Each structure stands twice: as structure tokens, then as C-alpha cells.
Amino acid sequence: MHRPLQVALFLSLNAVVTVQAEDIQFNRDIRPILSENCFSCHGSDEKARKAKLRLDLPEEATREHKGGTPIVPGDLAKSVVWERILSTDEDDVMPPPKSHLKLTATDKAKVKAWIEQGAKYEEHWAFVAPKRPALPSGNKLPAIDYWVTQKLAEASLQPSAEADRYTLIRRVSLDLTGLPPTAAEVEAFVKDNKPDAYGRLVDRLLASPHFGERMALDWLDAARYSDTNGFSIDGGRHLWLWRDWVIQAFNDNKPYDRFIAEQIAGDLMPDTDDGKLIATGFQRNNMNTHEGGTIAAENLVNYNADRVKTLGESILGLTLACAQCHDHKFDPISQKDYFRMFAFFNTLDDRATDGNAGVNSLPSALRKTVLKTDELPALLERITALNRRLQVPDSQVLAQWERTQQQREADRKRGLKLIPVKLLKISTPNSGGGFTVEGNKFKGITKTAFDILGETPPAAEPIAGLRLVFPDTLAAPKPTKAAKAAKATKVAPVAPKPMDEFAGRFVLTAVDVTADKIASDQVNIHRLQKFSRITADAWTEDYPAKDVRAFNVLNQGWSPPAATGSHHLTVTFTTPINAQDQPYLTTQIYFGNRIGGAPSEGELFAFTGHDDGTDLPEFVLRILATKPTERTAEQQQALWAYCAKHSDEMKAVRTDLANAQERTKTLTEPQSTMVMNLSAKPRETFILNRGDYSQPTIKVEAGTPDKLPALPAGAPANRLGLAQWLVMKENPLTARVAVNRVWKLLFGDGLVTTAADFGFQGQWPSHPELLDTLTVDFVESGWNLKGLIRQIVTSSTYRQTSRTNAVLLEKDPANHLLSRGPRFRLQAELIRDQALQAGGLLVPQLGGPSVNPYSPFDLWREVSHYGSSPATSQVFVQDHGEKLYRRSMYTYWKRTAPPANMVTFDAPNREVCTIGRSNTTTPLQALVTLNDVQFVEAARGFAQRIIHHGADDAARIRWAFLECVSRPPSDKEQALVVKTLARERSRYAADNERALKVLSPGESKRDISIPAAEHAAWMQVATLILNLSETVTRN
After folding, report:
1. Cα→Cα distances 99→40, 328, 679, Å
2. What pLDDT, on the 0 to 100 scale, is given for residue 1029?
3. DSSP character for 967?
4. Is 882 exposed, middle or buried (0-12, 13-18, 19+ CB in 10 A)?
5. CA distances (Å), 673 to each of 412, 613, 651, in order?
6. How far apart are CA 964 and CA 185, in angstroms?
7. Of 429, 425, 443, 545, whose CA–CA distance to 493 is shortest?
8. Could you give the CA distance from residue 666 to residue 669 in angstroms, rounded to a whole number?
9. How far apart, in whole angstroms, are the C-alpha atoms of residue 90 and residue 378?
10. Cα–Cα distances in Å, from 298 out to 120, 351, 739?
């Protein structure tokens, strides 16, 4: 029950702390308190509203209600809100105890002062069009520095000194290109004494093609860009043309209003072209599904809901998604407003399911890339040169290859011990059966995949591999020479059937072997085996043994030739299995369907002992058996043709040629990409009760939220009109949000720290006058993004040192006042790219299809289904050559298994719009930079470059620091590195084999003219520098 207001007031006034006598501002001081503690029950959500009371509207909060007037401006004694705040009665006090919300003493003091000062409400600051506040007439500072200095003065602080030149070039280079400066660039800038040196540096970086890559990175997060669909089997898609459009748009300094408008409605513009159509991929980045049994109407609702959410957070800075099921509990966004926005996207001619076809879901289009590059002439010359290398015999390469093959043949003929395996069970994967097993006989192998579980006897020797034998008849084969690593399963005799009746009619695509401690139908820990070699005695053209994978790929594999005789496939494990510790072996076999799928019923095969197998066809073996001096020219040319096509020695040339040909195709031929397109029969839009697709209520038409300006006069009520509305001058949000995100990129945090929420729950700007000044400047400049960035990075505020002291940590601990330069860890992609650049490995090529660099073995297995083709992204197939060293933003992004080394550094999975990543520090991050093959290889390359960049150790160490952290080492650091180098030299000089092993990771070739011990010692120095906190930190 209500207690007398006068009594509560008299007893409680002295308990409230005081605030300064200055005017209380509603937006800055009061709205955050009410939004956090009151609006969920007394705000815009009518269904959640209690006592029919709204405190978000002044006319409602100040009128008389049953029980009194909530807020009486200037009169605390008559304000029921104040009475309820101070009440000690659990039934009366607000917020109620069950809400677990509580006003602090400072909160109460602010509310008290606000009511006493007249309880003035203000329109929410973000919903008011920005205006440039006037600067004092005598001010000589640029606007950024003036407003920052004013805020610091209020806290009795002054700006910090300017950072040194080493720091400045590293800071601005990372911010504008995502890459650190080279040692040469650092020294040139430090020595440049001209007054405009820094300005020219900024201009050079803004003109760099890498500027677009750096700016695009955060936009890809916001747009939830991915190379896969996300739901169900997470199949592949092609949207990289849109990603490249974004990069080129930033490089071209496309006006930001056009940048936004084309992504929303490029297909509807009167002057639409390839670029504008590609741009609409922004709203095709949503997740979609192929899954059977899903409900089409529900899927389409989910897709459009994601589009509304993304538009709200990435462009408007509003949490529109909170109004999908009910009126927004905090912001003035009704459920009707939400579905009116939803209606803009409900006219898209998209599909409820993608059909799992391994291609883009409709609508899609064939379009040429918009990338601007002059690399095509060089590419064509390169292709010609590489083809010549493959066609013209290289006597040295051929001689080395022959020696290698002869050694393998000698090893193969030595023979090894057979280890038989007892057959326990044969079944289809993930099932309890599927095949007839009688004793040691099995038949009915008509599926495309099955498991064989066997038990090995105690073995004295490790199991190094296995052989699959397709016999010349279906009688059980007699084991030949045993293999060090084999398992054998005998099959019962059946009527003879020549091999040539079914050979060549199927493709064996994959073999998996898992070693287990206990039988696989019990609780178990599996050890999946990696293979070092896969060979065969013979194969059908285009289906060699080397194309068999460790997981199913339907479009490639091994097929034995259609000829009478036994044929076999041999797999050798990278690490032998200890049969005593892991006696249970499960072998999973996959058959493809390019030729005829799996063998027919009755077409059996056996596991048997093996020697090491050969991967050479018989005609090659015959030539090799002939002395080189006795070979014909035709034989020698045939041998070279085989060597050029299949040998490890020529693999790099083949890879480079394939990559160059693919790059040429990317730049010259139309590619498929997902786009927006109006449906011939647009769907009607209804408000959905509780957001449920099956509960439509009131029909609505496309429109904007009532609290924001209406569509421009004459604008159509479709996506084109929406695009015009987003960038019209009267829209108070779009430009503000963009400016804030640019500030966030450059300072680590926005002027509004809640970059995705400019609503009532968002934070008040730390420098509101500065935000409005920059926003007005931005719009008046023609939405010039490069101009905005230049204005910020040339300011004294940006150029402050990031060094701190006790006073700054006490008065400005989070640097919200901008009392110093910001310091924060680099994003995941920048950390990897920096290592690649240091290692001399980074390929600076722009755009193109996504690539698969190194990845943990079989990472995708647990989230893959059905063993589908690479187009549906079920199998990770590592790339080679230049593709291993592309910038990280081009790494293939699978939503259910994003790149592990980048996720460790807080990269999102991109299932939904992400504005601002987490920034954590964990031990796993050090494990990545110390052990990930990409980083180890980069350290080896960096060491090689260090050795070549200096006449002595001191010069090399100085260059290494300049190259990696953009400054020379201190005397203490120099001494520490010298000591470390001496220790490592001694260690590796005594163990050259260890040095060679340390230098082995990665596919790039090391400079063998450098002694292994010396190279390995410098590699440890390189690793040390690459793992400094300073290296992975921006200042």
C-alpha cells in the first residue's frame, strides 16, 4: 500500500547523495537510468506495460493517473515516481525487487535534481538530425582537437604528447591498410624532415589498394559474409564477387551514400549495371538451408528477419530485431514498424531452400568482377612461361625424379611382415548394419560408403598402413608380400568372376582409418589416421590414386583399369599405429558415382598384406627399366610428360600454372553470384503474432518507423525508396552510425561505445558535439569516406602517444576522454597477415575466389554430412602455392567451422551481423602463433630474410625489429637477442638433424645455401620477435 508521500520524503531526503548544481540533461543523465530500470514495464511495449503508465513520453509521465501524477516538474513532494523510488515497502518500491534492478545513490540524486529542475524531457539525441555546433571565435584548433581538449579540461587533464615517428607510421599503416610498414618505409619516414611528411604518408596509404581490404574487413563482419549457407549441411555458395565489390568501392572512395544505396537496391536503380547488381549481395549474405522437412514459410520469414536485423544494426544502429515478437521494450519501435520494414524485403524472389545443389541459391546472376587491376598481361606471360617449363624436358629434374623412383622401387621390393585382422562387423556409416556377414564373408556392397571394424592380434611391430586388393576373381586372394602396416580380411570363395567385368565401373573416393582403444560400439576416443602416401599399381585415366582423400569427395578418386588381374590401392600412415594400445581398427570406405558408384552386389574385395606399393603405371616402369642411353626419343618424351604431370619435383610449377589460369578466368569470365531481384508475385506482409510465421494478423505495407522521418516525397515504397530514405539528409542515423564506426576502427572504441545500438539502451556519446560535427562534415563533403578518415588521422588527438601514467589511469582508465592514443590487440586477420609479410610469403593479390590455406587435420569432419562434393563444402581440401599465402580476408569462411586460427583471436562465425568483435587474451592464442604451421613457416621465412638483410648480427637484429615492430631494438633487447642467438646456434650446431626438422613445416622452399643450423637459430629469434606482445598489438 502507498505510504504518505510526505513521510517517505522526510525520512529519505538526507539519504540521497547530491550532484553538482549544473543542469541535468535528460538524454545524458536521465534516459539511461529510466531505460535500464523503468522502460521495460513503462515504455513503448504496450503488451508488457504495467499500470498503463509510460515514462518514455513526457505527456504521459506528467499527466494525472489513478493514484497521482508520476512526475510533477519542479515538485518532488507531488511526484509519485519519487515516492516509489524512495519507498521501503517491497510492494511499492520501484524498481520492484523481483526485477533485480536497483537505482544507485547517484542515480537517485540525478533523478531528484532533474525533477527539481523542471523534469525537462528531450527527444532522443540519435533521433534528432545532427547540427554542427559553433566553435568559439578565438579558437585556433581543428574541431576534433577542440572538442577533445574541452572534455579533457573538464577533468583537469591535458592531451598527451605526440607519438614518435616510429609509432606513428606503424599505427597509421595498420589502421589504413591492415599491414605494418616495411623496414625501408619506416626509415624513409623517420628521415623525412619535411613538414608535410606525415600528410604525404597518409595520402599514400589512402591510395593503396590494401586500403579497400582493410576497410572491407569490418564491413564483412557487419554484412555476415560467408562462403557457406550456414544451416544444415552448411553447403557452399559463391558471393566473393560481392566481397570484391566492397573492396573496390572503398578503394574508389565511392560516396558512402551510394555505397549503402547500391547494396540495398542496386537492382532497382534506373542506371543499374553489373556492379550495382553485384552490390545487392549484401542482403543475400543471410544464412539459408536446404534441409528437407523444413517449412518454406518459416524459412522465408527467418531470412527476411535476418535482413531487417542486419540493416538495423549495420546501417541504422538500431536493434530492430527486438520488435519482431512484440513492441520494442525500450526504443519507440512498434511491432508494426518492424513488419513495415520487413515488407521491404518480402518482395524478393528468393527460395525457401537452396536445394543442396552445391551452387548458389536463386536469384543469382553471371557477372564479371569489378576489380580494377592491371595484372592480366603479366598473368598471360606467366602462363606461357609455365607451360613451356612443363613441355620442355628438364634433364636435372628428370634425373632427380628417376633416382627417387628407383629408390622407392627398391624399398617396395624388400617386403614386410603381414598382420592379419579379424573381421568383426561391416555396416553403413552411422547405422547398425546394412551388409550380410557370415563368418568371414560379406556381400551386398551396393552402398556408396560402409565401415569395416576389425581387431588386430598383439603385434610386435607398429601398423604402418593397409592395402585394399581387388582380386582378379572373387575368390579369396592369397596374401603376397606382407606390408609393415597392413590389415587383412579374407573373404569366402564364391563363383569366379573376371575382374574386367566390373573394374573401371566405380571410383573409390576416400579411405578413412580410425584406431581405437576399445570396440567402436562402446564409449571411445578415436584417433583418426593421417596418410603420408596413397599409391596404386594401376588406374583408369583421370582417376589416379593420388586423388583419393581422407574424406569423401564425389568428383575424384581412384578407379582400377578394366583389365583382368588383381589391382590394389595402398595407404601409408603418417604415424604408425601401436596395435597393442589401439587394437581396433575401423576402416571407412567411400565410393563415388562419376563412373558407376560402388561395386555391384557380389563384387567383393579384400584387405590383405602389402608391400609399399607403387604409384607408377606400367609403361613408366618399363621405360625406367630401360637404360637412359637405350631409350628412344619418344620414350624419353613420354617419361618427361609423366614426370611433368605427376612428379613432386614439378608440383610447384603445376600449382602455379593452375593458380594463374584460375586467376585469369576470375578476371575475364563471368562468375555466378547471389543477388537481389523482385518477385513477379510479391508476397503480402502481415504482423505475425509473437513473430510466429503461422500466426499472421494485420496486413501491413512497406514503410519506415513512425518515430523516424517518412520516405522522401515521391519515393517508391520498395527497396529503392528504402535506399533513398536511408541516405537522405533528414535521416539522423545513417551518417552518424558510419562516422562512429570509422572512429571505432581508428581508436578501438566509438564515440558511442554501443556501435550497434544508438537507441535508448545505447550509451550517450562521449563527445556529442564532436560526433555531430564530423557527421555534418561527412555529409556535406559528399559522404567522402577517405576525407573523413584523413581528417581524423591527421588530428593531434589521433597522433597522441599511447603511453599512460597513474593520473590518466585514475581519471580516464578506459580512455573515453581520449587523453592518450589507443592501444589494443590487432584483429585476427591482421596478426596472420603481418606474420606472412614478415616471412616474405604474403601474396598481395586483390580479390578472387576464397582460398583454403593450412587447417587442422580434418577440421570440418564433425560438422559435415553425406560426404558431398567440394562445392557443398563438406570436405576441406587444402590449396597450394600462392593460395596458401593470400591475405586472411580471402580465407574460405565456413560458418559451422570458421578458420580455427582466426576464431582463436575472436573472429566471429558470421552467422549474424557483428558490429565490433570481442578482444580477449587467452593461452590458446600463444599456441597458435608458436605452433600453427602458417606461423612456423612465416618464422622460417622471416629468419631467411633477416640473414639476407645485414652484414653482421647487429645489423640483422636491427632490421628484424624495424621490419616487424617498426622501431629499432633497445640496447637491452639487442643484448637479449644476441644471447638467445648464441644459445640457439650452439644447440643446432650439435644437432643438424633437429635443425632440419625445425625448418621443415610448410610448403614454401627454404634457401638451402644457408646452413641448417644457422637458419634454425635465426628462426628462433624470428619466432621470439613475432611473438612479442608489441607485435600483435596496435601500439
Report:
1. 10, 18, 46
2. 95
3. S
4. middle
5. 49, 44, 31
6. 12
7. 443
8. 6
9. 79
10. 45, 12, 36
